[in-house]
Amino acid sequence: MKYLVCKKQYGEGCDYTIGCGMRFDVIEAFSPENAVEQTIYPYGRDRVSALEGEMALKELLIIPVEYVTSVDLKGIILEIENERKRQFAEQQQERELAELKRLKAKYGD
Questions:
Q1: Which of 36, 42, 72, 105 falls 20 to 30 Å from 29 in CA-CA distance?
Q2: How far apart are CA 44 and CA 62, in angstroms?
Q3: Residue 35 burial by CB count (10 A; 0-12/13-18/19+): exposed, middle or buried?
Q4: pLDDT, tens digit, for every residue of 15-35?
Q5: Is the pLDDT of residue 69 over 90?
Q6: Are 4 and 63 in contact, with CB atoms under 8 Å apart?
Q7: What is the pLDDT of residue 78?
Q8: How far is the C-alpha of 47 from the C-alpha of 31, rounded, in Å?
Q9: How far apart are CA 50 and CA 53, in angstroms?
Q10: More confident position, 16 or 44
């Protein structure tokens, strides 16, 4: 099963404004407990754990992927861009028609 792993280290990392101390990964594991084991001991129990050292974890969330919603941002971005283009074209047409009306009033048909 796949799990979303959300890790936060102590402190703010290099800069709190950009979330350097946070990381999100998707991993394969047999169970939530196995996901914890893989995350805390990524190189095995005989090596340094993720709870030690300069980048020690402060918080850990493990969520089954079935509860995670993936959002198609490309599709939403395309919708927004198309709507902005449509609005711009409408505004441009309104400006041009107003200018045409002004010029007709000034010079006649």
A1: 72
A2: 19
A3: buried
A4: 666 667 888 999 999 999 999
A5: no
A6: yes
A7: 95
A8: 22
A9: 8
A10: 44
Tokens 């991993």 locate to 27
Provide the β-strand partners of residue 60.
7
Report CA-CA distances (Å) from 9 to 13, 20, 38, 68, 87: 7, 9, 17, 22, 44
In contact, 30 and 91? CB cutoff 8 Å = no
In this predicted structure, the answer to whether residue 57 has a pLDDT above a threshold of 70 is yes
Amino acid sitting at position 89: A
pLDDT at position 15, please? 64
Tell me the average pLDDT across 78-91. 97
Residue type, 52: E
* Residue 108 identity (one-letter amino acid): G
**Cα separations (Å) of 47 from 25, 60, 75, 89?**
21, 19, 43, 61
